Predict the 3D structure of the following.
Amino acid sequence: MVTEALILSGLLFTIGAAGVLIRRNAIVMFMCIELMLNAVNLSFIAISRQVGVSAQLFVIFVMTVAAAEAAVGLAIIISIFRHYSSVDVRNFRLLRW
Amino acid sequence: MVGPPVVPALVALAQEAAQSAEAAHQAAYVPFLPSWMILLPFLGFLFNGAVGFFAPQQRKLVSVVGPGVLGLAALIAVVNLVMLAGVHDAEAVIRSYFVWIDIGQLRIDAALQLDQLSILMAVVVTVVSFIIHVYSIGYMGADPGYARYFSYLNLFVFFMLVLVLAANFPIMFIGWEGVGLCSYLLIGFWFTQGEKAEAGQKAFVVNRIGDFGFLMAMFALYAYLGTLDFHTVFEMAPRAFEYGGAAVTLITLFLFLGCTGKSAQIPLYVWLPDAMDGPTPVSALIHAATMVTAGVYLVARSGVLFALAPISMNVVAVIGAVTALFAGTIAVMQFDIKRVIAYSTISQLGYMFLAVGVGAFTAGIFHLGTHAFFKALLFMASGAVIHAMHHALEHAGEPAGEDMTQDMRNMGGLRSHLPTTFKTAWVAALALAGVFPFAGFFSKDEIIWSAGAAGQTVLWAIGIATALLTAGYITRWLVMVFHGENRMGREVRGYLHEAPLVMTGALVVLAIGSVVTGWVNIPEALPLLPEFTWLHGFLHPSFEAAEHILVEHLGEPAHAAPVGGGEGVWAIISTVAALAVIVIVFNALRAKKYRPAAEAVEPSGPAGLLYHKYYVDEVYETLILRPFRGICRFSWRVIDQVVIDGVAVNGTAYATRFFGWIVSRLQTGQVGTYALIVVLGVLVFLGFVTL
């Protein structure tokens, strides 16, 4: 049972990582990051079968951080959209040499 | 000359001198106020320097103090000489004042050595200096830098006395460097004129080459003997060094390199003619009478070392003789009134080195003393002429640059305008030419005789040839300046006048000196004259050790010239020959019409070679200075600008910037790239962990 859950978690994580790398829409990339976070949560839950309840504790932490991240991230995306009228990350290249 | 406040001091000095003289009669020689002899000129320097800074218009004060301190110093020196002469074979007295350097084995005292040689030199230096100081009151009277001039002159005498009275090599070196400094300051006294400042620099730089030799000799002496005190060194040397060994030869050759710089011998003589850019009394004092003879003094002082090194002795004698002839020929074709005498000085210094080089130390010092008087007189006579020319041209409203006032082609017939100068110049010229009974006759004759007696046939012949040459060029000088027709315009001629009394007075005193100084040593061989070898007897203790070594290894000097004939015969031959040359040259040139410098054509052919001083300056320029400048330019343009500035300093900056630029390309601003790098980084990290 644990193995299947971990494989599913790995798949979800890979999909999320691939999405972050491939997609250009900031909202979609953001959602992919959430997907990666939740894939990790899933693997924690599965591993708690073997290591005990402390693994589940981490899930609570991750969800808290994810909520905070969602608030900050979405706020940034909104303000970028207001400025550029777009959320395509290829347009955002001011922070470079 | 000496003002009222100085009189009580004089009286006190005289009283003390009398007491000391009494003491000396009973016991050995007790030096009389030796430190004051040195301190007085130094106080004069401080005082005049302060006046120059704070009250440059106080000329009277300077005129009293400047020569006054020298008068007192000369008095002390003469008193010491008299006291020393009263004691038979007095031992050298060493007065140590304080420890100057004390490091490990090296201990150097600030000490004075008072013996026959140093006191005699001190007398020559202070007496001639005093006369020239007095003369300067007239010559420099109108100069805005009057106080500064006298402070330099006082400082010079101070250093010169340190040089001659020092009891060890390092203290002597202080004086040696100090007189070089003052020479530089005084050659470039009118430093606002570019070429004069450059002449001062040339003198300084050329002297540095010689100073290098002096330093090397000192290092080597210390390495071998562990001491630098004259007394100890000369006592140890005969035992410590092998006769003719490499060590002592090297040391003496280095010492002699120092001498060629300071005393203007081949190859380092080139600075002396240019040194004539300084005021004329300076030329008389520093570049004729005193400083340039320091080399001769050094060789005489280190006589023991030189006597142990026959090769060095030969080098000294040959360089001296060749320089004498070489500079003498250049003097024949010069037109600048001072340059003729400058080359004559180089030539006469050559004679002195010839003398000390064949072991005739007394003869060398003798010629040094007589030369100091008659050569200073020649320079000061030139000074009086230049003074007159300058004033006449200025009054007539014509340009009065040095090319006008010092070119003998513009002169002629000055005998009626400057009668005193004319007469004294003749005295000096006859002394220089070695005509009986003037001073040069006795001293020069002894040198030539000594060269012959030492078996140096070629050097002896060169000596005689140079003596005739000397008579020739100095007669030409006299004729061009004083005889014949005046070549100035009539208007200028009217303004020509004799120099003021302080100047002519000094000339007369020196003229007397140019006659009597020769009579302190009359060789036995001269017919009709009583034998009076006072100088030989007096200097005997100073040169005894060196002469002993020479006799031991080379045998007694001969009693006949290389081609036969005794000393008396050759003395008569040479004075008659010199007189004959004077008469011939006088008659040949008196009728000759010289054109004024402005219209004159440059001499060509052999005369041109002499006129251009054998192109030695040009040869040095091509062979030494130009390659040297090439090296300097290479160091500047290539090593400094390209290698150090370009590659090392700026190169580091460029490289840093370049690598920074490469790394900065990673920062694209694209979120996708960053994400890719993070993922790749994690994968690589995981790969490492799992493997």
About this structure: Chain A touches chain B through 13 residues (CB under 8 Å). Chain A is about 80% helix and 0% strand. The domain at 2-89 of chain A is CATH 1.10.287.3510 (Helix Hairpins). The longest helix of chain A spans residues 54-84.
